[in-house]
Design brief:
The complex is a heterotrimer. Chain A is of the alpha+beta class. Chain A is about 20% helix and about 30% strand. Chain A folds into 2 domains: about 220 residues, Rossmann fold, CATH 3.40.50.300; about 120 residues, Beta Barrel (OB fold (Dihydrolipoamide Acetyltransferase, E2P)). Chain A has 8 helices and 20 strands. By secondary structure, chain B is mainly alpha-helical. Chain B has a two-stranded antiparallel sheet with strand order 1-2. The chains are: A alpha+beta, B mainly alpha, C mainly alpha. Chains B and C meet through helix 1, helix 2, helix 4, strand 3 and helix 5 of B and strand 1, helix 1, helix 3, helix 4 and helix 5 of C. Strand 3 of chain B pairs parallel with strand 1 of chain C.
Chain lengths: ~375, ~270, ~300
């Protein structure tokens, strides 16, 4: 079932309206997803959000209750895992303990009854690519964690899959080794023009490795896009929270204005169609410290609106965080606000301060979705 | 027409057959223990009786004394095996030392090699020492298979024991014996129970060593059962057999948890 | 969740002994039991088999007992019977145990119950097993009665002699009955340790069901099963009560002959009894060495 030649241009993957339940537990509520050919996508989400189930469905280890999975517009639904042109690297290396490194890599080819000599030659090529050619005759028990996962990677790639799935493959490795392994996967995937889906629960890892992020929460795809988009314009409040937009200000929208306690003045709303209860989110790094002197004339005397966000708050403390200072402050209503300030900033420990953010860095969500 | 239920039945048929095979011998054994007359072709017993169990309970039958004796010897073997196995298990499970593998191999041999030759060789010495035909003699010879089991189970337990607990206890001021009682033994409860149960069952099931060293004088329950079986009073024999199985099953059930965790760490059949 | 994730086993932590009681002292009691009673007993048995029998005034050493053994037709028949019964019992129990483990392992909800059912015989003494098997399989046993009820046999003698028969069928049946649960347990343990995940990994790599059985399941089950089989074989070779109760007086298995010679009023038989005991020991040691050799081979075998 596997194409004799690796596809040159990569494979397009479509997941359409897929659902999956285990008994009464709904693992995947409904997932629609499109991976463009030769793209590198991170499937990001907290544990238990259904991302591993989605991977199992793509690999054919599980079968969806409804929906369709297509590779290059051909459904693979009817194909069992052993016939799908899909490679999968698990969280654990799962190397066969009774086989040596070379025969582990050659396993898939041997299952297709390729002659041993040819299979081993091809396996040796792959080991070369992951930089482990020297370890071919070793027993798998003698490998380090990073070596194990490189062997698992070579083992998955030996069959020239059209889609490569990685299920938190490096989560058991040391941080700097993880970074190097991610680089290796990216290189190999790009060389083979592989469509790749990398599952992780680690935001930093997803941002580091992928061109595109699919965020999954509670069995649903919460959004898909570049890492920058998730940071600057999160699609939902939940997405904003997952991407650590720490400041949330609850209020309500009325005729194009956002009102909330703690705001020095109402904020002009640029987003269309938001009325009623709403939540404004803003990243701490977008906040800066204002002072009474900065204030445009008129605001302190009760201006009717502002174009940027201005919050009056009482500083609770300042923490040094290496590249910046973290100011924690509290509004009159007890709302906690965080701001990242340049190092060296001094904050008056008496009285109130003004924290400001540009309108573009603020995002509003109707709070029915909260 | 084949329904899903039919298909499931067919799928599980092999399993049901094997399980039935494993359970089949219990049927005639249990029936026989309560049967007085059961002549050939009758499939079911003709007359039920409690004669077998009454005979066992009778003061002159010797079976009851055998039961008590077996319990005594079993408990003594169990306690001694744990006492001897504890320090050795500690050494093997906790410490790295030269010759560790050799010691492990040496301790494993009695698990695999039958104790028949050793017991036959020892018999004449035990006669000289006055140990033959006495319960202590039987107990000593039963330690040959019991100690290696207890040691290997405890060694596996110690290997899994996080020594930092002991360090913590020491930092908190618990001295030697206190530390042992308050920290190490409670943490090692599972392996200790498993080792004790295994050693007890080895002694409880042993017939040949008791026969060779006991020389017909030490009438443990297995010796009594063997006599009952060869005496062709099958009703009494079956009743004695059930009497012998019951405590073993009780002990196994009581220690089900620790025994289940034994798994691979302790290769060996022992009484099993 | 699907079985895509599992915990890593905690590594065994070994430290060097610092201060305190020396390791040798900790090991001393256990080693004393094994060295003095076990090795000492075997050595004394070897010495007696070579003719060292001070208690009847014999001190000259020689291989007379072993020569007698080789020339004794009872012993030769016994040797063959013992080997056959032990090998057959072990092989059948291994096959049945593996099958039972595979059947139980694929169960869903009923698995715990089935495991309990399969293991209930573990703690039952062989003596009890021998009696129960006799009551089941003898010519007046339960199966013979059922066969009669079904019209297959008329009188007890029409039913095939499975107990005290010349092939040792009853003995084999008891070994199989008692040891199948033990080997099932070992196989189940091996299956439980991540085999399902390895199976998934093999599936994604294109392995079909029988290929997964051949390349994943069997390699995982084989080493513990082989180890268990060695134990079963060694036990079967040295077992006394089962062949005594379920076998014929002639040919009898080696331990039965050994005990018979050992207790003979003619003390000159003693040396031969010891020689048979040494032979039994040698058989089980051979099985052990063969197993260790096999283990080394399995470990180095390519796909």
């Amino acid at each position: 079932m596997i194409a004799p030649e690796a596809p040159r241009l990569g494979t397009r993957v479509d997941v359409a309206a897929v659902r999956k339940s285990y008994g009464s537990v709904r693992a995947i509520e409904r997932v629609d997803l499109a991976l463009s050919p030769a793209s590198f996508t991170a499937l990001l989400g907290p544990s238990g959000c259904g991302k591993s189930t989605l991977l199992a469905l793509l690999a054919g280890l599980e079968h969806p209750d409804a929906g369709d999975i297509r590779l290059d517009d051909r459904s693979v639904q009817h194909l069992p895992a052993e016939d799908r042109p899909v490679g999968l690297v698990f969280q654990k290396p799962l190397l066969f303990p009774h086989l040596n490194v070379l025969d582990n890599v050659a396993f898939g080819l041997r299952m297709q009854r390729r002659p041993r000599r040819g299979a081993r030659a091809r396996a040796r090529d792959l080991l070369e690519q992951v930089g482990l050619a020297d370890l071919a005759p070793r027993r798998v028990g003698e490998l380090s964690g990073g070596q194990e996962q490189r062997v698992a990677l070579a083992r998955a790639l030996v069959l020239r899959p059209r889609l490569l799935l990685l299920d938190e493959p490096f989560s058991q490795l040391d941080p700097d080794l993880r970074a190097r392994m991610r680089q290796l996967v990216r290189t190999l995937s790009a060389e083979a023009k592989l469509t790749t889906l990398f599952v992780t629960h680690d935001l930093a890892e997803a941002v580091d490795v992928a061109d595109e992020i699919v965020l999954m929460l509670d069995g649903r795809v919460e959004g898909q896009g570049s890492p920058e988009r998730f940071y600057q314009d999160p699609p939902t409040l939940e997405a904003a929270r997952f991407f650590e937009v720490a400041n949330e200000i609850a209020g309500h929208c009325e005729r194009g204005m956002f009102h909330a306690p703690g705001l020095v003045a109402p904020l002009r709303v640029h987003q269309q169609g938001i009325e009623g209860p709403a939540v404004l989110v803003v990243r701490p790094e977008s906040m800066r410290l204002g002072s009474i002197r900065d204030e445009p004339a008129g605001i302190s005397s009760g201006a009717s609106e502002t174009d940027g966000l201005i919050v009056r708050a009482y500083p609770l403390g300042v923490r040094f965080a290496g590249t910046h200072l973290i100011l924690e402050a509290c509004t009159d209503d007890g709302l906690r606000v965080l701001a990242h300030l340049p190092p060296g900033t001094t904050v008056a420990d008496q009285g109130s301060v003004q924290l400001r953010a540009a309108a573009e860095s603020c995002t509003l969500f109707p709070s029915s979705s909260a | 027409m084949s329904t899903a239920a039919d298909r499931r039945t067919v799928r599980h048929l092999p399993l049901a057959l094997v399980l039935a095979m494993l359970w089949a011998p219990w049927v005639p054994l249990v029936l026989r223990a309560f049967t007085d007359s059961w002549r050939f072709p009758a499939v079911l017993p003709e007359r039920m009786t409690l004669r077998g169990f009454r005979t066992i309970a009778a003061p002159d039958s010797g079976v009851f004394e055998g039961l008590v004796l077996s319990l005594e010897i079993g408990i003594a073997v169990s306690a001694l095996a744990c006492l001897v196995g504890w320090p050795a298990g500690r050494a093997l499970g906790t410490y790295q030392f030269r010759g560790r593998r050799a010691v492990q191999a040496l301790l494993l041999t009695p698990v695999i090699v039958p104790a028949l030759a050793a017991a036959m060789g020892l018999q004449i010495l035990f006669v000289r020492l006055g140990l033959a035909g006495s319960p202590p003699g039987v107990m000593l010879v039963q330690l040959i298979p019991a100690v290696p089991y207890a040691t290997s189970i405890l060694a596996a337990g110690f290997a899994n024991l996080d020594l930092d607990y002991e360090t913590q206890a020491r930092v908190l001021g618990a001295r030697g014996p206190r530390r042992l009682l308050a920290v190490t033994i409670p943490l090692m409860r599972g392996p200790l129970v498993a080792a004790a149960v295994m050693a007890f069952l080895i002694s409880w099931s042993d017939f040949l060593l008791a026969l060779l060293i006991g020389a017909g004088q030490v009438k443990t329950l297995p010796v009594q059962l063997f006599a009952a079986v060869t005496a062709t009073d099958t009703t009494v024999a079956a009743a004695v057999a059930l009497t012998m199985v019951a405590p073993a099953l009780l002990v196994m059930a009581a220690a089900a948890g620790p025994l289940a965790r034994l798994s691979q760490a302790n290769l060996g059949k022992g009484p099993l | 969740m699907t079985g895509l994730r599992a915990v890593r086993p905690r590594p065994v932590r070994l430290t060097r002994r610092r201060g305190g009681v020396p390791v040798a002292l900790l090991l001393a009691p256990a080693l004393t039991v094994v060295v003095v009673f076990f090795l000492g007993g075997i050595s004394y048995a070897v010495a007696q088999s070579l003719g060292y029998q001070p208690f009847i005034g014999r001190h000259e050493l020689g291989l007379a007992a072993y020569r007698d053994l080789a020339g004794d037709p009872a012993v030769r028949a016994s040797f063959i019977l013992t080997l056959r019964v032990a090998l057959l019992g072990t092989a059948i129990a291994a096959v049945l145990g593996t099958s039972l483990a595979l059947l139980v392992h694929r169960l869903g909800r009923g698995r715990r119950w089935a495991i309990t059912m399969a293991q209930a015989n573990l703690a039952v003494p062989h003596l009890v097993g021998a009696l129960a098997i006799g009551l089941l399989l003898s010519q007046t046993g339960l199966i013979a009665r059922l066969a009669h009820a079904a019209g297959f046999v008329g009188a007890p003698r029409d039913f095939p002699g499975l107990i005290s028969d010349q092939y040792g069928i009853g003995i084999v049946a008891e070994y199989v009955w008692k040891e199948t649960p033990f080997l099932t347990l070992l196989a189940l343990n091996a299956l439980g340790r991540g085999t399902a995940q390895l199976g998934d990994a093999a599936r994604v790599l294109g392995a079909r069901p029988w290929q997964r059985l051949r390349h994943v399941t069997i390699p995982a089950v084989l080493p513990p099963l082989a180890a268990g089989s060695v134990l079963v074989f060694a036990f079967a070779v040295g077992s006394y009560e089962v062949p005594y109760l379920l076998g014929r007086p002639y040919p009898a298995t080696l331990p039965v002959v050994a005990y018979q010679y050992h207790t003979d009023v003619d003390l000159t038989y003693r040396a031969e009894a010891m020689a048979i005991a040494v032979l039994i020991t040698a058989l089980s040691v051979t099985a052990l060495l063969a197993f260790l050799g096999l283990l080394g081979r399995i470990a180095r075998r390519p796909a």
